[in-house]
Amino acid sequence: MIQESSPAYRRLIDRYGDVDAIDASISLFNWDRQVLMPPGGADARGKHVAILARMRHEKITSDSFQKLVEEAARDVTPGSEEAAAIRVLRRELRTQTKLPGELVARKAQVGSDAYDTWRRAKPANDFKAMLPYLEQLFDINRETAERLGYQDHIYDPLIDLFEEGASYADAKKLFDTIKGPIVQLLKDIQERGREVDDSMLYGDWDKPKLRAFAERAAGQVGFDFSCGRLDVANNAFCTHLAHHDVRMTTRPSDHIKGIVSSSLHEMGHGLYEQNSPKRFEGTPLPGGISLAVHESQSRLWENIVGRSRGFWKRFLPDLQATFTELSGLDAEAMYRAINKVVPTFIRVGADEVSYNLHILIRFELECEILTGQTALKDLPEAWNSKYADYLGITPPDDTNGCIQDVHWTRGMVGYFPTYTMGNLISYQMWQCLSSEVGDLDSRFEAGDFSGALNWLKAQVYDQAKLFTPRELVTRVTGRPMEPTDFISILSVKYRDIYGL
Amino acid sequence: MIQESSPAYRRLIDRYGDVDAIDASISLFNWDRQVLMPPGGADARGKHVAILARMRHEKITSDSFQKLVEEAARDVTPGSEEAAAIRVLRRELRTQTKLPGELVARKAQVGSDAYDTWRRAKPANDFKAMLPYLEQLFDINRETAERLGYQDHIYDPLIDLFEEGASYADAKKLFDTIKGPIVQLLKDIQERGREVDDSMLYGDWDKPKLRAFAERAAGQVGFDFSCGRLDVANNAFCTHLAHHDVRMTTRPSDHIKGIVSSSLHEMGHGLYEQNSPKRFEGTPLPGGISLAVHESQSRLWENIVGRSRGFWKRFLPDLQATFTELSGLDAEAMYRAINKVVPTFIRVGADEVSYNLHILIRFELECEILTGQTALKDLPEAWNSKYADYLGITPPDDTNGCIQDVHWTRGMVGYFPTYTMGNLISYQMWQCLSSEVGDLDSRFEAGDFSGALNWLKAQVYDQAKLFTPRELVTRVTGRPMEPTDFISILSVKYRDIYGL
């Protein structure tokens, strides 16, 4: 708990402990379901998650809890850490008090149950099996948006749940700004770029050895495995049961790019959580302030660090010791291979240049579905048509198309744009980080990730939820999120790789 | 839910769902802590478990819940399944309403936290590290007993928590009855029995292969791995998150006897849970009615089935295919080896004959500690002295002595006698089972475990918590628990093995 806090604040935090414990239970239920629950547990699991979600909602919206928040609010010093905790709780209360417990429980249950169907339906190319769940989950999201209220667009209250202050108009403007430069860069690479060969990375690699390599790399970069785990699941994700119990997963892939990038991505989320100040534990303050800021960390470690020359000068020898087939490869060729740009069907396997076009497609589709412009039953065709338009490729099936992601299956609508926002913020922060710390490529080559990590700890992780996302980005980089650094650094990096 | 139930009963069961969900959360928190939680999670885990235990206590002792129980009680038909559920809840209310939530939460937290210390202290022979936890946990048990109240002995309300209706006097009388015949049988074996060789079972066996063998055996006997798991933990246990999500563990041992017997033991618990009628899910009725009846199932499958001639005629070829070093062994030699009687320091490695002397020692010691006759700080000496008296051996250290078991570390005082009661009930049921089903050894040899399993399903597992333990044993065997069958069958079996 925060030191020297007021009695009213201490009473509030004491009561908040119940919410914190329920949150940890729900997180463990969901982690367990995705990582190792036997199939027979599914029925009860969905019910239990729904009950806990309803209990959490009851606790936080109860008159007595709201009264505690207001009593504490009168007591705390403006600008203090306590005041930040009150701000976080008030924001949550504004949302939760507008939603009935039944809706919260239903979303938790359907989102939990849909996962098992998705796990079977995805490899079986069975969109029809997913359709009833998607119908329910989009209905739940529509109802949520109506209850939360909005002025301009039904998307506004939904994206705000993931990214405080964001709106449909923001996301639209952002994509409008970056689409042109990205499409141009992609076109230049495809038409005039030199050949980049990544064929050596495809092979029937030993999966446990590959995962062990990813785990070693994450450990050397700075993830503390005494306060976390890396397991295998059908989707890569990161969750925390406490700030010193951070659980990451990686997919059961046998592809070097896939394993390394998904492990470093989740490690980026994990570092943000693991490095929350200990004194915030049990309060509403620890952890990431928003999904975009969270994604800025996962994408920073995955892409800017994990696809850098320095990183591969450091780790290629380890990879080559693991897989002697790669012994002829030099670090520059590895650097190019890991950054090869080629439009693909699968978002999580996408290169940095085309990645945001995958997000744009999802953003447009979820808006169209919410407003009724596209019917869910027509999703496969709508999806494939956008892939043809934006990326020039048509998915051969829904496995490689509209049921590849887990997000909608878990009821998360309004989430996708935060990936692109995260990309922008990651480069914006990187610009500051690299000018302040300096010499990062050589440091990485020497296995020294502490300069970058310590800068991020001080600037971002230590701040936890003390500031709004907009405030935090402005404090760290001197200005709110905007696309300049992203576009310019990306352009320089890929024009270099492709000899443009 | 049970069909055609009364409205008041349905309201009660609906509300009971919260308790059921919290129980599942606590079980998963504890399973996770013992199987795979990273060390950093320990602090928060203890707090979260304590909060959930307190929330559960609040829910079940609330006036509104008690009122629902009494309303439903007026509505249900005597002798119905609903009436049994009311009986189970009333028994729980009688206990829980006498205990303050703070005590319940403290026991949950100390019991959870002590586990991590125990895991380090046991291999390090560090009794001193355990002492403060044991002091707290015995104090908590003393306070629990005082609050629950008793007439004759402080042990009475504690053993009753695990075994409805049991008392110190019952347990004392039971041990007094069986001690003589057991000691005599042990003496005869040691003095006049032929040599039984089990040296071939000791070796540096490949642990994953050994566990895979145990898992195959459990699966062939009847454990449904689509509704359960077998993992490795420092202590072997079985828990359930739902009746189709039953989690067993086995120790990281490399000893064939240890792995096979602990896996079959936990499988016995698991079969009892897994086979609870689906219609009871979400009510207070599913699962084992008491620890003694639960132990009767684990001990029946571990010892009576798992150490039978038929079982090893069936499974020795599989074991030999796994470990070719055993190829010279015949089933009769394996049968004798797996049943070799020799006093050991470790309870969980004990043979059937000396096993109950290990329990007697623990029963006497926990009573002496509760009453102050033995101080906890003197436990190592008291422990070793009893091992010398009853088993003729003196543990070389506390690793092999008083800190070998997890029970007291988890705050479970009054639990141990249920193992011996379970042994008695297992043989009493076996007597009926074998006369009604018949030809069991040949069936096992043919890989047919369904006759035994179906009998137990109908007689025991289907009954779940419908009857008190005494009623259930009487219904199944025609009489309450008593030691005749145990003593006579054990004597016949071991006099045969040892040529007496």
Would you mind describing this structure in some detail?
2 copies of one chain form a homodimer. Chain A has 500 residues and is mainly alpha-helical. Chain A folds into 2 domains: 7-121; 168-497, Neurolysin, domain 3, CATH 1.10.1370.30. The first copy, chain A, is built from 20 helices and 3 strands. Chain A has helices at residues 7-35, 42-61, 63-75, 81-96, 101-121, 127-148, 155-162, 168-192, 207-221, 256-274, 291-305, 309-322, 331-338, 352-371, 379-391, 417-437, 440-445, 450-459, 469-477, 484-497, and strands at residues 228-232, 238-242, 245-250. In chain A, strands 1-3-2 form a 3-stranded mixed beta sheet, with helices on both faces. In chain A, a hairpin with a 2-residue loop joins β2 and β3 (245-250). In chain A, α1 runs antiparallel to α2 and α8 runs parallel beside α20 (484-497). The N and C termini of chain A lie far apart (54 Å). In chain A, 50% of the residues are buried. The model of chain A has no long low-confidence stretch (mean pLDDT 94). The interface between A and B is large, with 36 and 36 residues.
